[in-house]
Design a protein that fits this description.
single chain; 191 residues; Rossmann fold
């Protein structure tokens, strides 16, 4: 199986690149953000809890995310692999993901870290907030989300670097250029 993790700061293009990777490689897409937004929309218990955290720019607690994530993995089968979009977001989640996939004998093959300048991230997020009506894309929440990303998610780079699975991708370029950098790395690993 081809299991890929793609992460980066909010606004780095994870969702856009994930869609392109899915089309090219036929992977199953698992996006923590989409899952939690759906839970919020459906007003589930997880959704109500998540809404409180997300509206303040905080991460949803690891244990809640892992429970939902495990449930989703248990429901999918017969896929070529997964693209984990914006997941894991903490070292705990990275370790839990590795353990979960080890049980299934299908490890993460590659991790792509999208690097984008902060000024560009803010510009993209404010634009997305206006165009998509995402109320979590406002200046105050964006600032908090970027701080939390630096504190809690950036350390994942070192975790995956030590495992020899980290690919740093310059995310300031065009969508096509970023995608080319990702697919070059995947094709070298797979073919």
């Amino acid at each position: 199986m081809l299991n890929i993790v793609i992460f980066g700061a909010p606004g780095s293009g994870k969702g856009t690149q994930s869609e392109l990777i899915i089309k090219k490689y036929g992977l199953c897409h698992i996006s923590t953000g989409e899952i939690l937004r759906e839970e919020i929309k459906d007003q589930t218990n997880l959704g109500l809890i998540s809404k409180e955290y997300i509206s303040q720019g905080h991460l949803v607690p690891d244990q809640l995310v892992m429970e939902k994530f495990t449930e989703i993995l248990d429901k999918t089968s017969g896929v070529k692999g997964y693209i984990f979009d914006g997941f894991p977001r903490t070292i705990f989640q990275a370790q839990a993901l590795d353990a979960l996939l080890l049980e299934r004998k299908t490890p993460v093959v590659a991790t792509f870290s999208l690097s984008v300048e902060e000024k560009e991230l803010i510009r993209r997020l404010l634009k997305r907030g206006t165009e998509a009506g995402r109320n979590d894309d406002n200046p105050e929440t964006i600032k908090k989300r970027l701080e939390i990303y630096k504190e809690r998610t950036e350390p994942i780079k070192e975790y995956y670097r030590k495992k020899g699975k980290l690919f740093k991708i310059e995310g300031n370029g065009s969508v096509e250029d970023v995608f080319e950098g990702i697919t070059d790395a995947i094709d070298r690993l797979v073919y």
